[in-house]
Amino acid sequence: MDSTEPKFSEKRFEEIHKEITAYVKKVGYNPTIVPILPISGFNGDNMLEKSDNMTWWKKKKIERKGGSYEFETLFDALDNIDPPSRPMDKALRLPLQDVYKIGGIGTVPVGRVETGILKPGMVVNFAPTGPTTEVKSVEMHHEALVEAQPGDNVGFNVKNVSVKELKRGFVASDSKNDPAKEAADFTAQVIVLNHPGQIQAGYSPVLDCHTAHIACRFAELVTKD
To answer: Which Pfam family name is an example for this entry (predicted)?
Structure first.
């Protein structure tokens, strides 16, 4: 807000508030439960304490299923975020961020558990073309884990697999519980926020899905809102 013209402009904040609200609604969220507030990270305005530079800014109230709360600063808004539930009951999905060869240990893939759990002794499969192997150990921040849960960034040692057989973008899954499989095509719901040209059948963007980065092609536009 310190870079608006004039500085700390209420009018400019309302313009941005309106634009953000439209984007939030467009991508499927309820804008009435998303806190939007004016801050200056450079000067600390409305970060921890109410700023004297924006006397027009008043405390706001959010109503949600889990109860209501009021916020005036960024700290208030962050402190009242509902922590997401961990999808531990779903099948294991762990997109690989990287793969290392560590002396005396062997091949160690690393990544973030998205769903399910990962634990030593589990037989995992690496999709789309990787091998099936047993997990020897699981570590996070150099500490051994009995099991890794969704949200954990871990490294895990696997048996009889070389670094060359795995790469970033592969997905580790439990070979005995709905293992991940490759797909030649899929149907996706796409939300276009900004695009300079036309999007039609044959359009070839680069797809970023978790850690995968790969070219794809729109074969058909099924519906358009």
So the answer is: GTP_EFTU_D3
Tell me if 222 is assigned to some domain.
no
CA atoms of 193 and 189, how far apart (whole Å): 13
Range of the domain at 117: 94-174
Q: What burial class does residue 92 get, using C-beta atoms within 10 Å of its C-beta: 0-12 exposed, 13-18 middle, 19+ buried?
A: buried
Looking at the structure of the chain, the number of domains it has is 2
Q: Is residue 158 part of a domain?
A: yes
Rg of the chain over CA atoms, in angstroms? Answer: 23
Does 130 fall in a domain?
yes
110 assigned to some structural domain: yes
By the 8 A CB rule, do 101 and 163 touch? yes
For 137-194, write each residue's pLDDT tens digit.
999 999 999 999 999 999 999 999 999 999 999 999 999 999 999 888 999 988 777 7
d(CA 83, CA 1): 28
- Phi, psi (rounded to 5 degrees) for 11: -60, -45
**Euclidean distance between CA atoms 193 and 171, whole angstroms:** 28
Q: Average pLDDT in the 101-122 region? A: 96
**Is the separation of the CB atoms in 86 and 149 below 8 Å?**
yes
Distance between CA atoms of residues 190 and 17, nearest Å: 24
Assess whether 58 and 111 both reside in one domain: no
